[in-house]
Amino acid sequence: MSWDCGLRYMFSVSPALQQGNKCIMHDKEDLSRLEMVQRLAKDGCRFLQNHSKGPDRTSEPQSDEAVRLCLRERGHNVLVLQRVSSEQPALTASARGGGKVEARNRRYMVVSGTPEKILEHLLNDLTLDDDRGTPQGKESDTLLDDFLLTYPVFMSTSDLCQALLGHYCTKRHRGKEDRKEALERKQKVLHLVLQWMCLCKDFLREDEHIKLFMKTLYRYVLDDLYEHPVLEKDIEELQKLYQLHHRHTVDEYSPHRKGKAFFHPLSLKENGLHSRSSHRETKEVLCHVYVTMDSYLSIRVHSEIMAQELLQAAAERLNVPQAELVLVAITYPGGRLLLQPRDKVFSNSLQSVGRLHVCRKDLCEVLNPFTDNSELQQRTARMLSLNTWDVAVALTDFEWTIFGSVHEQELVYFTFNRHACSKYTMPLELLLQRCNEVQLWVMTEVLLCPTLCKRIQLIKKFIKISAHCKAQRNFNCFFAIIMGLNAAAISRLGQTWEKIPGKFKKLFSELEALTDPSLNHKAYRDSFKKMKAPKIPFLPLLLKDITFIHEGNKTFHDNLVNFEKLHMIADIARLIRQCQKDQMGNGITQKSSSEVRAYIDYLHIIDNQQTLFELSQRLEPRA
Fold first, then answer.
1. Of 213, 242, 271, which marks where a domain is finished?
2. What whole-number distance in Å separates Cα of residue 235 and Cα of residue 190?
3. Do residue 165 and residue 263 come from a single domain?
């Protein structure tokens, strides 16, 4: 197709640029993209180039912000790209596009578009290494990562699978495609699929529908091996991911077989996603066993636990013989159900049969540890006997078992569809729950300490534990402990705080300064950024950042996906991956004594703020 002919289809700009006029293309990248634009023109698309106002558009260089390319179909925009410079540090992370090596000083980022066109642009933008058949360019990989992390916002898994099979199998609607172009297209699709499975395999690999999609794609790749032997590498990668083998007859996978494309509905909303890691396969949960109407034991258990095992764990934590206790479930209508030793505590949905209470057999009432002064003395003595570093190690180890299984995509599910997708965000919600429980645990321990001198020792211990958590790069626990000590029921204990030694007050002030929310938590952000991975961030602040982006920006503009918003969210979600890096290599997890682990695994917590404040008033009555 000649340039004059292509101009009529490809460009629609200001009235000064009409048919018969010349269009000057300044950049090598524009020339390298000419072939792609011509191909789009054959399909009836028009490429718009918006320029900034001014009488002389070609004499002065255009700023990147002024250059946007709009792809139109049937009179509507379907893809909007903006040119950015990779040389600009502020935009390097969000730079988009592939292109040849000599054209990388000018790239394009996706601003908005339809899901199908964003995917098509992503595939077109990938530049394969001739030797290995893998994409080059950090920016294009970032675009791919953004898409794979955020696609559930605008595209169901069913649509994505069908689109990928379509791109792999279907030839261009118009025009001829040579053998090299066909191979390149297939390799790009396979690279995207492999990246998708590697990123989200823990979400997707056990899903039977996804397995069917992978097997279908596997069949297509086997069919193409005769014509494209280089795809053997991709076959091996698919086999590693889904343990696919040559178990079928040669006739079935003959390269001459005329098989029809098989598309299976894989709606994310309808089918759901299965467990994503070994931690999730065991389905460990934090179980609440109430010992009073206001307080409970937080116990980490597996989902298949039976009533007898749970009762034994509670009895050990309470220092009460198991034979004297029974486990009772308070059902929602208000009934009471006595659980038998072999009864399962949780259903398959991980929802308890009701609020669990541990009661004495003879009384059939909940325990009341607030009135037994000897028991309170024993509780305080046990906590004061524990080594602060060991306690911090046990807290950090506990949180790593949860945080290590948190997936970046959980932040997207949690932000956009929290209630409908709670089964996908279990580790994230457990970590948030744990943060709240540690805060309440600090308050409970201090307020159940009856004597002033021991209460002072206990606060000193918690200050040291918080410092140790910071040293172990566990900011989730660090924040929880500081917030617990800063709670109104604790901070009002003037007589207690007056007796705290000066060096501990100074240490507490320094630690407290890191939790200062002024300037958008600048002190914490600066300190956290300087720390090397692995590290555990303060999850509530991370979710707050994503929520602000979500609430402050529309997800769709004129029925086009606002991909700029999704890129910002993906940038924050990637922080989870960066924090989890080299978890075992930097000594973040250490061994603690079995006594300390047993204490930390079974926290005694009062979750009623009114009860906590009444305990505080009892310790130091208001003057």
1. 271
2. 10
3. yes
Our CA dihedral for 14, 16, 19, 25, rounded to 10 degrees, sits at -80
Comparing C-alpha atoms, which of 399, 366, 365 is closest to residue 284? 399
State the angle between helix axes of 3-10 and 34-42 in degrees (0 to 180), rounded to the nearest 10: 70
Q: Tokens for 505?
A: 């007050």
For 587, left (φ over 0), alpha (ψ -120 to 50), or beta?
A: left
Residue 174 buriedness (CB in 10 A; 0-12 / 13-18 / 19+): exposed
Contact in structure between 431 and 358 (CB atoms under 8 Å): no
Residues 77 and 64 in one domain: yes
More confident residue, 290 or 584: 290
- Whole-number average pLDDT of the chain: 76
H or E segment and range at residue 310: helix 307-318
Asked whether residue 362 falls in the same domain as residue 401, the answer is no
Q: At residue 3, does pLDDT exceed 70?
A: no
Domain count along the chain: 3
The two tokens of residue 252 are: 């079935």
Residues 14, 15, 17, 18: is their CA dihedral positive or negative? positive
Please tell me whether residues 504 and 556 are part of one structural domain: yes
> Are 146 and 238 contacting, i.e. CB atoms less than 8 angstroms apart?
no
Cα 2 to Cα 9, 48, 72, 172, 255: the distances in Å are: 11, 19, 21, 20, 38
Strands (E), 347-464: 355-360
pLDDT tens for each residue of 605-622: 998 899 999 999 999 998
64 within 8 A of 83, measured Cβ to Cβ: yes
SS (H, E, C) 165-198: HHHHHCCCCCCCCCHHHHHHHHHHHHHHHHHHHH
Q: Are residues 574 and 610 in the same domain?
A: yes
pLDDT in tens, 479-514: 999 999 999 999 999 999 999 999 999 999 999 999
The answer to whether 82 and 109 are in contact (CB under 8 A) is yes
Give the range of the structural domain holding residue 40, as residue numbers without chain letter.
3-271
d(C-alpha 559, C-alpha 579), whole Å: 35
Bond preceding residue 534 cis, omega within 30 of 0: yes
Look at residues 67, 141, 149, 110 and name the one whose alpha carbon lies nearest to residue 546: 149
From 337, 368, 399, the end of a domain falls on: 368
CA 150, 152, 156 angle in degrees (round to 5)?
145
- Asked whether 380 and 344 are in contact (CB, 8 A), the reply is no
Those residues whose C-beta lies under 8 Å from the C-beta of residue 530, and which sit 6 or more positions away, are none
**What pLDDT, on a 0 to 100 scale, did the predictor assign at position 426?**
85
Q: Does one domain contain both 98 and 186?
A: yes
Q: Are residues 153 and 285 in the same domain?
A: no
358, 397: one domain: no
